[in-house]
From TrEMBL:
It holds the Pfam family YegS_C. This is sphingosine kinase. GO terms for biological process: cellular response to abscisic acid stimulus; sphingolipid metabolic process. It is found in: Vacuole membrane. One of its GO terms (cellular component) is plant-type vacuole membrane. One of its GO terms (molecular function) is sphingosine kinase activity. Residues 111-253 form the DAGKc domain. Its EC number is 2.7.1.91. It is an enzyme of class 2 (transferase). It comes from Cardamine amara subsp. amara. Gene3D superfamilies: 2.60.200.40, Probable inorganic polyphosphate/atp-NAD kinase, domain 1. It is a peripheral membrane protein.
Length: 480
């Protein structure tokens, strides 16, 4: 065994091996870094980025990830990893056995997932999820020795249906190669299980492969990682997790569990009605958005909210009486929302007309929309952005600021955090026989009279909705 320089992390094993045809000391540090000397220069793998190893005859092949340009110019390439193998030959059978034991112990100590259930939505976004999975995701998971059970979703709500009955103890996580839609299905399916409390501890991972990838963008962007399939996969392999607030939207006994957002007015109208311009790709939002601002709609209605500490000055004081709920015996066995005593809270209200009401759970609504720059994954609050009447030019400039989140600084936008929320949606000001659309997590929750495709079924009616937040209820794979 060879001595180590003084400031280096302690060695788990240090031994002479053959690497690239020459005998060199090789060290595995306690941080999971391999260090050796090549042509007189010290070389190393990045700490903790050994994916797996295999024995090939007398040699050991270590599969690692290397940050492109590491040590030369890191900023531009941050998070851009490439796969690289390091092959070495221990000098004896005994030494090879010790190396294998130590590498195995190191990998076991990292708490990485061993078995994942993977949903691939071949119809999400521009229909590239299958290709992304096969070319970018699967090879990395295989190199990390993670066992996969892959299920392509065959129809809407397929993922939700499956997670309602899977044996959660068989998996270390669920991965969605999709847009945000499958994530929402998975969370709703898990919450409908009688064992929801345990089921929600199963981490959910996202690989961006849809048109709305707001959740994974919210996870990767703050740590400087690109919103790519590769960085998302590496984050899952590393196995770190974080908790995520879940909002319960209820109308009578009907419930929907939201992890991203709820919109009514301008944002919902652009999101849903621009569907008819789907062929334009993401430009549909800008072009239809422009049209909606030029022919601006305003809606009657009222919102009630319980402000987070520090936001008590928004709106006017109000009282709220909660609708009677059915006795527990009449309810399904799944999660029923947080046990908050809503009557005891300090409610405030804002009255219409409204241009837009937007609630957000995480910062990014889509890859280019920083909807709620101060939103936190598990602060127990939703970020509320309210827009009332404003000059069209101001609204247009506000829409152009959505990509950097500065729209919330506009004097025409109110931006606050709320603990509970009630929406009482009303009719349009210009055409009072028409109502709007309520959109949650990209799905139409309610369609009012004479709204876009109003004869299609929606989960709830265009009426009062109540929203409460359960802090950190769900679990996500996260880069940090
Ligand atoms: N095989 C399928 N055929 C049709 N729809 C499906 C299929 N599998 C899943 N879906 C539905 O596709 C919807 C969108 O999924 P996803 O979130 O992956 O994509 P998205 O790109 O964010 O959404 P969209 O393409 O609708 O904008 C989900 O609501 C899901 O239920």
């Amino acid at each position: 065994m060879d001595p180590q320089p003084e400031n280096d992390p302690p060695a788990v094993i240090s031994d002479r091996v053959i690497a690239n045809g020459i005998v060199t000391p090789l060290i595995l540090t306690i941080d999971g870094e391999l260090r050796w000397t090549e042509s007189g220069r010290r070389k190393s793998t990045v700490g903790k980025d050994i994916l797996s190893f295999v024995v090939e005859g007398n040699k050991v092949r270590v599969k690692t990830l290397v940050e492109r340009g590491a040590g030369i110019c890191c900023k531009e390439n941050a998070g851009d990893y490439t796969r690289k193998d390091f092959v070495f030959e221990p000098l004896s059978d005994e030494s090879r056995k010790i190396w294998c034991d130590k590498l195995h112990q190191h990998l076991q100590s990292l708490g990485r997932p061993k078995k994942l259930l993977v949903f691939v939505n071949p119809f999400g976004g521009n229909k590239t999820a299958r290709k992304i999975f096969i070319e970018e995701v699967k090879p990395l998971f295989e190199d990390a020795n993670i066992q996969l059970e892959v299920q392509e979703t065959k129809y809407q709500l397929h993922a939700k249906e499956m997670v309602r009955s899977i044996d959660v103890s068989r998996y270390d996580g669920i991965v969605c190669v999709s847009g945000d839609g499958i994530l929402v299905e998975v969370v709703n399916g898990l919450l409908e299980r009688p064992d929801w409390r345990t089921a929600l501890k199963l981490p959910i991972g996202m690989i961006p492969a849809g048109s709305g990838n707001g959740m994974i963008k919210s996870l990767l962007h703050p740590v400087g990682l690109p919103c790519s399939a590769k960085s998302a996969t590496i984050s899952i392999i590393r196995g770190r997790t974080r908790s995520l607030d879940v909002a319960t939207i209820s109308q009578g006994t009907t419930k929907f569990f939201s992890v991203l957002m709820l919109a009514w007015g301008l944002v919902a109208d652009i999101d849903i009605e621009s569907e008819k311009f789907r062929w334009m790709g993401s430009a549909r939002f800008d072009i239809y958005g422009l049209q909606r601002i030029l022919c601006l709609r305003q809606y009657n209605g009222r919102i009630l909210f319980v402000p987070a500490p520090g936001f008590e000055s928004y709106g006017q004081p109000a009282s709220y009486s909660v609708d009677k709920e059915l006795p527990v015996s009449d309810k399904a066995l799944g999660y029923q929302g947080p046990d908050t005593k809503l009557e005891d809270l300090e409610w405030r209200e804002m009255k219409g007309p409204f241009v837009s009401v937007w609630l957000h759970n995480v910062p990014w609504g889509a890859e280019n929309t920083l909807a709620a720059p101060n939103a936190k994954f598990s602060d127990g609050f939703l970020d509320l952005i309210v827009m009332k009447d404003s000059p069209k030019l101001a609204l247009l400039s506000l829409m152009t600021k959505l990509n950097d989140g500065t729209h919330v600084q506009s004097p025409y936008a109110s931006y606050l955090k709320v603990k509970a929320f009630v929406l009482e949606p009303g009719t349009r000001i210009d055409e009072p026989d028409k109502e709007g659309i309520i959109d949650s997590d990209g799905e139409v929750l309610a369609r009012g009279k004479k709204s876009y495709k109003c004869d299609q079924k929606a989960l709830m009616s265009y009426d009062k909705l109540q929203i409460t937040v359960d802090q950190g209820l769900a679990t996500l794979f996260s880069p940090e």
